[in-house]
Write a structure and sequence with these properties.
0% strand
């Protein structure tokens, strides 16, 4: 049939398809070369929570690659991801927490210089966005729903594994309270092992 406006690509539908199909770290170079990470960053502020979560899920998978993570930080992805922590949509919030956990793993590495600009910017933005109280509240909600202080921890390792394995598809169909709690704990674990006085700030914020 003749080409029409209906044939124009729909980035919101596309990112949901990509999130469903899954991406791997090896895809990061292609995303950067094509500038697709910029489209994903813009979709973090989409009107649909489902689209926001899908964008965060894809960015989270690819941010395990240092070059991709650096591009995200320099192109302004951190703030919209942090803002998703305050959404009431559980799948989108879980995808955002997971993306932050993956990003923080290398940024908080003790092998980095104490004055690493990327790590300092990540930590300052995290605390400036009041992210810690929101994460701790999520853990409290999970504990009350479970009626106890523990959870199964299913998928702790795979939560930080790039897509293509048995990882739940965060932000699309895997946004459970349990996965959110696991992602929160992994993020706090990465932060507490970092430098720059992060641990005292976590303690002062009630993380213990």
């Amino acid at each position: 049939r003749p080409y029409s406006s209906a044939d124009q690509p729909n980035p919101q539908a596309a990112v949901q398809c990509v999130a469903n199909l899954g991406v791997e770290a090896s895809d990061a170079k292609a995303f950067l070369a094509a500038g697709w990470h910029l489209s994903l960053i813009s979709l973090l502020s989409a009107s649909s929570a489902e689209v926001q979560g899908a964008a965060a899920a894809v960015l989270g998978n690819l941010s395990s690659v240092p070059e991709f993570r650096d591009a995200l930080l320099s192109d302004g992805a951190l703030q919209p991801i942090l803002q998703l922590l305050h959404t009431s949509a559980l799948p989108a919030r879980t995808a955002a927490v997971r993306a932050l956990a993956i990003m923080s793993q290398q940024l908080m590495s003790p092998s980095l210089p104490a004055d690493d600009a990327g790590a300092a910017a990540f930590v300052d933005a995290f605390f400036a966005a009041d992210a810690l109280p929101t994460l701790l509240a999520a853990l409290g909600d999970r504990r009350r729903r479970a009626g106890r202080g523990t959870f199964t921890g299913r998928g702790v390792k795979t939560l930080l594994t790039p897509a293509g394995d048995e990882r739940p598809r965060e932000g699309v169909d895997g946004g459970t309270a349990e996965r959110e709690a696991v992602a929160v704990l992994l993020l706090l674990l990465s932060l507490s092992g970092g430098h720059g006085g992060v641990r005292p700030r976590l303690v002062a914020g009630g993380a213990v």
